[in-house]
Amino acid sequence: MSETIPQEFWQGVEQFNSGQFYACHDTLEALWIEASEPEKTFYQGILQISVALYHLENRNWRGAVILLGEGGNRLRRYPSSYGGVDVDELLSQSAALLTTLQQIGPDKIISGDIGENKVLSLPKILLSTD
Fold first, then answer.
1. Do residues 78 and 52 lie in contact, with contact meaning Cβ atoms separated by under 8 Å?
2. Can you tell me the distance from the alpha carbon of 99 to that of 89, in angstroms, rounded to the nearest whole number?
3. 109 contact partners, CB below 8 Å, separation of at least 6
């Protein structure tokens, strides 16, 4: 990391983990706009995964699948632990959800709370232990 992670990032992590995906998007987008590399792409990857989950909540299967893939591709550039985040675990959880969504297809996204759907395990951002 070229600089200390700002407090707003951790606010975004809390929003992400509590299912406030649109609020997380707003928080991380403000950081992303002002950031320089390598943080810029890191924020963008997490932001895209958050927006994917927002799309999923709104039954936008296509948007969820596209952004899960794009966010994961951006985060793959980072070490397993970056900025206090367990990047490997976030990638693993996001990839598992992407695979599940691809297997069940757009017509199987049922109504109700996505977070309560037993088939769909939503990713969480975990702190690294390094």
1. no
2. 15
3. 56, 59, 61
Band (105; pLDDT cuts 50, 70, 90): confident
Is the pLDDT at 4 greater than 80? The verdict is no
Estimate the crossing angle of helix 39-57 against helix 21-34, to 10 degrees.
160
Domain ranges of the chain: 7-116
The tokens for 29 are 């987008």
Beta strands in the chain (DSSP E): 81-82, 85-86
Per-residue confidence at 2, pLDDT binned at 50, 70, 90?
Answer: very low
Q: Which amino acid is at 40?
A: K
Fold exhibited by the domain 7-116: Hyaluronidase domain-like (1.10.3450)
